[in-house]
Amino acid sequence: MLTVDPDRLALAPGMRVLDAGCGRGRHTHALSLSPGVLSVGVDLSLDDVRTARESWAQIAPQAPCAVAAADTTRLPFADGAFDRVVCSEVLEHLPDWNGALTELDRVLSPGGLIALSVPRFWPEALCWRLAPGYAQTPGGHVRIFRKRQLTGALAAHGFRLFRSGHAHALHAPYWWLQCALWRRREDSRLVAAYRRFLEWDLIHRPLLTRALEAALNPLMGKSLVLYARKPA
Question: What is the reported pTM?
């Protein structure tokens, strides 16, 4: 399930792409499939990094993909080391999210592109309202971003926004269900059934649900996605 669209990044052979806060590597793996592109994923969780490495070694060991444990606020890379940077569903977890943005700016080369995604304000705010425990989960979300807050931060770092959008409208009801049934979500048949539907949709991607999600994304897309360019 990709939140950032690789086709929006104008990837070309020889480029290096950083997936900051890669988790189990969904974007890292997808980006590595672009011919001639080196994809590098970093995450603070060593377990997630191991999972990303092991899963990709089984799926496409020939693809140029590397993963490592690292802190997004203190990246172990030289200035301008990457042509593209992706940071998807990460900043909402970080106490020092501006520090992370400064680091992403530092490791991105002049003229490079950055793609950020965070939970959209109103679907996320509804989750917080339905279940106070949602925001108190260890390692969970510590803030809700408004679009103007994130676009303003990008502008303050000198980035020029060239595209924005929303994604995963069909996933928003799943999280609302979980939050509405927070205390018994693990045993809820309704939550389990919706999860099976999402997994089926992810695997089969029928035209009907793809068209439905595309139509609903502007209204209730779970994620806000921003694409910006660093001045040359």
Answer: 0.95
Cα 119 from Cα 167, distance rounded (Å): 9
Of the chain, the percentage scoring pLDDT greater than 70 comes to 100
Per-residue pLDDT tens over the stretch 2-38: 999 999 999 999 999 999 999 999 999 999 999 999 9
> What residue type is assigned to position 190 of the chain?
L
**What residue spans define the domains of the chain?**
6-229
Q: Looking up tokens 């926004």, which residue turns up?
A: 161
As a whole number, the mean pLDDT across the chain is 95
Token representation of residue 141? 């979300």
CB atoms within 10 A of CB 86: 30
Q: How many CA atoms are closer than 13 Å to the CA of 20, on its beta-carbon side?
A: 30
The tokens of 229 are what? 């360019």
Quote the CA–CA distance of 39 and 63 in Å, as a whole number. 9
From 8, 13, 22, select the one nearest 229 (Cα to Cα).
Answer: 8
Measured CA to CA, the distance from residue 80 to residue 99 in angstroms comes to 17
Write down the pLDDT at residue 132: 85
Q: Which fold has domain 6-229?
A: Rossmann fold (3.40.50)
Alpha-carbon gap, residue 107 to 82, rounded angstroms: 6
Residues 6+ apart with CB under 8 A from 32: 38, 39, 56, 60, 63, 64, 65
